[in-house]
């Protein structure tokens, strides 16, 4: 839970109160949660899950660009899932199972 809320702690004790958070804060939290769901989906469907994680984190970065740890933490696995899917699709013998 704290992982999803990184970067929202500078507003004091009432940070988790939805009436105090702005609409962009709620959207970014939702996008981060959706990116985590995308990474779970990527275990089975690499392209779909990796794409969801990447798109969500790109949008979240546009809305809140000053949280680099979260960007790297969720974007790198999403990109690697997409790279893995692409290499398997190309029929590269070194990555085929």
* Total discrete domains: 1
Order of helices and strands: HHH
First and last CA, distance: 35 Å
Quaternary class: single chain
Specify the overall morphology.
elongated
Low-confidence stretches: none
Task: Give the overall pLDDT as a whole number.
Answer: 78
Beta-sheet strand percentage? under 5%
Helix content: 55-70%
Query: What is the number of helical segments per DSSP (H or I, 4+ residues)?
Result: 3
Structural class assignment: mainly alpha
Care to count the β-strands? 0
Radius of gyration, in Å, reads: 16 Å
Q: What profile does the largest beta sheet have?
A: none
Brief account:
The protein is mainly alpha-helical.
Which helices and strands appear, and what pairs or packs with what?
Blueprint: H1 23-42, H2 46-63, H3 68-90
Helix pairs in contact: 1-2, 1-3, 2-3
